[in-house]
Amino acid sequence: MLTIVALLSTLFASPAISCSDSSWITNSQLCLGSPQVWEARPSPGKGIGVYATRVIEPGDTILSEPAMIHITPPEFRDGVPYLLGDINTLLQSSFDALSPQQKAEVMSLHAHMSPTEDANDTLMAIMRSNAYTTGNSLGLFPKGARINHSCRPSTSQYWNPQLGRRIVYANRRIEEGEEISATYIPLLYSHKARQRRLDQYGFKCTCEACALEHGARQASDQRRQDLQKAFAAFEPQLTLSVPQSVAGKRKARKRAEASVQLVEQLEEEGLADYYVKAYHIAAIAHAKIEDWKPATLWANKGFETSLLADPNALSAGARELQALTNHLIIKWNAELRENATR
Q1: pLDDT score at 1
Q2: Which residues contact 271 (CB under 8 A, 6 or more apart)?
Q3: CA atoms within 13 A on the CB side of 130
Q4: What is the pTM of this model?
Q5: In what order do the strands lie in the sheet with 69-71?
Q6: Which of 40, 57, 92, 172 is 20 to 30 A away from residue 63, measured at CA?
């Protein structure tokens, strides 16, 4: 019993970070390895792509990049292209402050022009086609912009406000020579809806998920839409209150079963950006039926997965999962003690 608790408790230690002379982040305490884990080269049908120069393991940092252009955009509306016309002056001012080499790097990026746009307004098109949100702002990251889209991406990314950098890391093993991919859009939509959302970038996706045969693609579409509905259905249930009525307990057991199916479908689709949320749901769902072992293991899995993006467990989400796992360890430990005295 104590061995189980001790074993689980060791999972909360901060992961060791190996530092060497090859560390390429300056003025930082983070050691993020060699910059030679990727190279940019032609990608068939996609212009330039980014390829792994060695095996990259889950959690490995691929890119840590400050914004070359950083501006405050108009109010964001999900699925609607930014209307950057209102901030053209800010965009041009930021661009004018760059060095000639930086300007050339920016202007070499893909620029999708809509039929209504001025053909001379390339800078605006580059910004709209390549920028990422950074909190309440908008940043252009020329190196990261070379990573092409996939509906089953091999990387995830987050904005680190403390470092002022966008961090791109592997969410699964990436083989040497494999093209590295990211996502430009939310992924819990059908193939047709995803393609429609990608129109703003001027291409049709031909990734592994989009290239499936008709029947397999329909099954994938159904899973993604079911996942979207499941996340919405579980959202109001994310409390640790245990139902007391017979009917309530019956529903809670069904939800626990459904939470495992949610995880399985998500992993089958390879949508790693949603894993932490799904593991959290599974932990809560099992806690509500007082099944402490799987509840603890799911919570810990969520915490471990959150560490891929947040190795020092600084984010609110990582701290919440760490606290939840500690709470569930206590519950599981108490159950083991009770069973031992029977």
Answers
A1: 33
A2: 152, 187, 188, 224, 227
A3: 26
A4: 0.81
A5: 69-71, 137-140, 132-134
A6: 92
